[in-house]
Amino acid sequence: MPGNGVSGNGVSGNAASDNGASASRAGLLRPSTGELAHRVTFVELFFDLVFVFAVTQLSHMLIHEQTGTSLVHTVMLTMVVWMAWVDTTWALNWLNPTSAPVGGMLFVLMALGMLLAVTIPDAFGGQALPFALALVAFNLVHSLFTAGAFLRSRPGHAVNFARISIWHAVSGALWIGGAVLSPDTRLWVWLAALLIDWLGPRAMFWVPFLGGSRLDTWDITGEHMSERVSSFFIIALGESMVVTGSTFAETGIQWIEVAAFLAAFVGTVLMFQLYFRHNQRGGSEYISRASERGMIAQTAYTYIPIVLVFGIVGTAVADGLILRDPTGGHSPWVVGMLCGSASLYVLGNAFFSRATGAPWLRAHLVGAAVFAAMIALSPVLDPLTLSWIVNAVLLAIVLSEVRDYRSVDDDEESIDLGRDGA
Q: Which distant-in-sequence residues (6+ apart) come within 8 Å of 169 by Cβ?
């Protein structure tokens, strides 16, 4: 979410020093220099634990009910969880989590996040109203708190977060209103609310009389944004490990279950490699060097990551289902979930690379197409065999990336495939 200002700390010239000193005295805002200016703090990592539980709840929805309706609900709720989390990441680019008031605000958000996560499995049913109330409170607490934190030292920032709060209030009315309607009507009202939440950043949070945020005011700390989003991917990949381990513990240790467990484990490791081997570092360096970080952060670290999260959650669901029945059924659902999720994850990496200054990598695009085509193999191969084939394709993509980046090194080009630091 946008701040207001044009220097590395969101303000310019002498005003930056004066405002920075005022903010430092207030203790609510990060200092403009020093380690804390971009460091991810322990309280932020503690806050993330709530979302480990939330992501687990999302994957379990599809493990327990494989229907089109459940898939739609899971996709929507995943978008809700991601946007709630990334909203706080934007705010924490400016807020100082080591201060007592900001830390207290995060603990309140954790409590609301736990309530949100608890209600996820029945959010479209009997728990609709508690879910909606928790979500709306979560969004408004951090946006209003941040507006207040900026009020004295950086009024421009405060106005921006007032805009954000207005957008949250509008979508919140739809979330709460939809919760008291019939389930069929609720779906459409909540789709409208979700659309508002996701269009807000792209619309610069335009509000009548207040206008919209200027692009040149969206200056954030690139290192902090990159580290925070990377930590969410670790959360999602860790949740995949939890699903794999807990399901394996239930099935018993037979050779075929061991083969399914190893396939799931190797797949998770390869997904980790695909993002963290090059993309994470390259993206962090690119946004840190860029003069206009706001739009990069909005595209690469707000919108594109949801594609990767879909891929990770879907893969965790597929792995859990395969562990329960490694050879049975030739299920189109399991195969579609496995191959479709792998395709999404690879595409997400391709989009992220492009958004952070790198060219399209052929391995990404070809791999995504291969995974999509493999869905047709459901009548031919059992899920366990297909799982190992998916891993082989992922390994080929990782090795192709290594070759491409090494080739760039040999040509004395940038290791980041053309990232030129705007």
A: 140
* DSSP letters for 116-171: HHHHGGGTTTTTHHHHHHHHHHHHHHHHHHHHHHHTTT-HHHHHHHHHHHHHHHHH
> Tokens at residue 408, please?
């760039």
Q: What is the pLDDT of residues 177-190, one digit of tens each?
A: 999 999 989 999 99
Mean pLDDT (whole number) for 355-372 = 88
Tokens of 223: 């290192």
Alpha-carbon gap, residue 39 to 41, rounded angstroms: 6
pLDDT band at residue 97, thresholds of 50, 70 and 90? very high
Query: Whole-angstrom Cα distance, residue 398 to residue 394?
Result: 6
Contacts of 395 (CB under 8 A, 6+ apart): 270
Residue pLDDT, tens place only, 256-277: 888 989 999 999 999 999 999 8
The verdict on pTM exceeding 0.85 is: yes
Residue with tokens 């619309």: 203
Task: Characterize 283-300 residue by residue with b for buried, 16 or more Cβ atoms within 10 angstroms of its Cβ, and e for exposed.
Answer: bbbbbbebeebbbbbbbb
Contact 387, 264 (CB under 8 A): yes
Q: Which residue has the tokens 């421009």?
A: 156
In this model, does residue 143 exceed pLDDT 90?
Answer: yes
Listed in order, the ranges of the chain carrying CATH 1.20.1410 are 222-410
pLDDT class of 323 with cuts at 50, 70, 90: confident
pLDDT of residue 284: 83
Instruction: Provide CB contacts within 8 A for 389, sequence distance 6+.
Output: 374, 381
Domain 222-410 has CATH 1.20.1410: yes
